[in-house]
Each structure stands twice: as structure tokens, then as C-alpha cells.
Specification:
By secondary structure, the protein is an alpha/beta fold. The protein has three domains: 137 residues, Rossmann fold (3-Layer(aba) Sandwich), CATH 3.40.50; 38 residues; 121 residues, Zinc Finger, Delta Prime, domain 3 (Up-down Bundle), CATH 1.20.272. It is built from 15 helices and five strands. Strands 2-3-4-1-5 form a five-stranded parallel β-sheet, sandwiched between helices. Helix 3 links the parallel strand 2 and strand 3. Helix 6 crosses helix 7. The longest helix has 20 residues. It is elongated.
Length: 311
């Protein structure tokens, strides 16, 4: 079974498995998708299959190119071009360019010449978070394989298999945005749980209806300016949990199960219709911040709008 250790990515697995079995492997691929969803692991597995080796460490026909410092430089691509004319030991010679979007314009233009007329034995795999960061001429010469976020249930189950308690695994998967790497990073992050505690305090302040303290929320959130979307997502999840509590449905649906007492207490202080409006306000704030609206103004407007809902 090919790619059996890859989580999710059913299309990519099926497509590339068929390509290998039918001996219709292209000379250039671009594996595109968010960080931490298995693109590099998939590229490595594909190389192992094509080279018929159990490990790549000592496989001379698999060459990996990574950024040197903040970019992949033209000298690295020129090294690839010097190496690619040397025939492989067996059938294929594979080049895996990780974080391909970090290639300089000069490096991309140099690579373009190789992509136009690669040797028949060469396979070049570009791994990119966002294909739009690469030149259109590069994209047009690669077969783009889109990697999608991993289903949250698969992330949760993987975390449980790693020894993480079920409720905690649910919480971590909900903030992973479909990235296994992100979920594992959060699992070992003290800052994540500290942030979660602070978000709980923000909610307590909001539901206290104390205008002075509510107006202080933007300055309190300033410390999380670079991670504000995660903070706002945490707030939304708390309010959704409050909504679930008010609906008296299955408590297993609550994300913040470790804070069930807090959620239940807050649910007694706010109406269902108010919770729904607050979630909409926070979602609108996320859109504004993603659109590069002023941070302090956006958070202040959010706080005042929530106050108007609950006063």
C-alpha cells in the first residue's frame, strides 16, 4: 500500500498511486497546501517508491534543496543544473525543493530552463504553501497537486494515539486548522494554554458588563497581536460552547470540556440570541483584521459592539 502513513490526502494518494502503477509519472510536480499537512512526507514516500529504497538518507539519486537562510538562491539551482546532467544509478533522479516559494526570482528563472527540457530520468518536486508565490511560468510547467487540510477527527485520533487525553486532543485539533504539525506544536506549547486562560478572562470581563474594563480589552489583547486570529477563534469556541450548554445537547460536543464549569456559569448570564450576535461580531472582526484594518480600532469596536448586545 502506497503512502499508508499519510493522514488524509485521499485524492493525492489515489492519483499518484495510479500514476506510479501506470508508469505515467511526470517530470515536474508542485505539492501545494498549508504547512504541516504531509506534503514533504508525501514527496519523500514518492521518492522511496520510485527509487525502490526503504530510506532516503543514503540514496544518491534523491537530492533535497532547502532554503539557505531566508531564501533558495540561484547558486543552489545552478548546482541542481550541474547535477541533473549526471545520469542516475537506476531509472530516476529526484529533486525535492522544499519551501519552493522562497526561491528568489533569479532562482525561479534559472529553474524554468530546466523545467522546460528536463532529462527523461529527472523528476522535480516543488513543495509550496502557496503556488501564487511562484512565477506563473513555473506553475504552468508543473502538475499541481493540491493538498487539503487534514480532517479534524484524524488529527484528534492521531493525538490520542500519541497519548494525549481525548478532551485535550479535541481542543488541539480544533485549533490546528487542519495541520498536524500545528496540532503537535500546540500540544507542547505552554503559551497556548496561557493564552486560553487569558481568553477566559476576556470573556468574564465582557459578560461583567463593566464598561471601563471592557474598554481595556484592546490593550490586554495587544500582547497577542501576532496571534489575534487564534485568540478570536478561542473566543468563538467558548461562546459556541455556551450556546451548546443553553441548548442542553450532547456535552461531548463542547470543545472546552476542561472548562465546563466556567462555560455553564457563563451560559446562565447571557441569552441564546445574544450569544449568536456576539459570535457574528467576532467573526466580522476576524475579517477586518485579515483585511489589515487597524488592530486597536478593530478590537475596540468589537468590544463596544458586544457591550451593546449584552448591556
Amino acid at each position: 500500500m502506497y503512502f499508508e502513513n499519510i493522514k488524509g490526502q485521499e485524492f493525492a494518494k489515489k492519483y499518484m498511486t495510479n500514476s506510479v502503477k501506470k508508469a505515467k509519472v511526470n517530470h515536474a510536480y508542485m505539492f501545494e497546501g498549508i504547512e504541516g499537512i504531509g506534503k514533504e512526507t508525501f514527496a519523500n514516500d514518492l521518492a522511496k517508491i520510485l527509487l525502490d529504497v526503504p530510506h532516503l538518507e543514503n540514496a544518491p539519486d534523491c537530492i533535497k534543496i532547502n532554503p539557505e537562510g531566508s531564501s533558495i538562491k540561484i547558486a543552489q539551482i545552478r548546482n541542481l543544473q550541474s547535477d541533473i546532467v549526471i545520469k542516475p544509478h537506476k531509472k530516476y533522479k529526484i529533486y525535492i525543493i522544499d519551501k519552493a516559494e522562497k526561491m528568489t526570482t533569479e532562482a525561479q528563472n534559472a529553474l524554468l530552463k530546466t523545467l522546460e527540457e528536463p532529462p527523461e530520468y529527472a523528476i522535480i518536486i516543488l513543495i509550496a504553501n502557496n503556488k501564487e508565490s511562484l512565477l506563473p511560468t513555473i506553475r504552468s510547467r508543473c502538475e499541481v497537486i493540491k493538498f487539503t487540510p487534514i480532517p479534524l477527527i484524524e488529527i484528534k485520533n492521531h493525538l490520542i494515539n500519541q497519548g494525549i487525553e481525548s478532551n485535550r486532543a479535541s481542543l488541539l485539533s480544533s485549533f490546528s486548522r487542519g495541520s498536524m504539525k500545528k496540532a503537535l506544536e500546540l500540544a507542547s506549547s505552554n503559551e497556548f494554554y496561557e493564552m486560553k486562560e487569558n481568553v477566559q478572562k476576556y470573556i468574564e470581563v465582557i459578560l461583567s458588563r463593566n464598561m471601563v474594563e471592557i474598554l481595556n480589552i484592546p490593550s490586554e489583547m495587544e500582547q497577542y497581536k501576532g496571534e489575534i486570529i487564534t485568540v478570536l477563534d478561542m473566543m468563538i469556541n467558548y461562546f459556541r460552547d455556551i450556546m451548546i450548554c443553553k441548548e442542553h445537547v450532547d456535552k461531548n460536543m463542547i470543545i472546552n470540556a476542561d472548562k465546563i464549569t466556567f462555560v455553564q456559569n457563563m451560559s446562565n448570564k447571557i441569552k441564546y440570541s445574544q450569544v449568536s450576535k456576539i459570535i457574528d461580531i467576532i467573526e466580522e472582526t476576524k475579517i477586518k483584521i485579515k483585511g489589515n484594518c487597524n488592530f486597536n480600532v478593530s478590537i475596540q469596536v468589537m468590544s463596544l459592539n458586544i457591550y451593546e448586545v449584552i448591556k
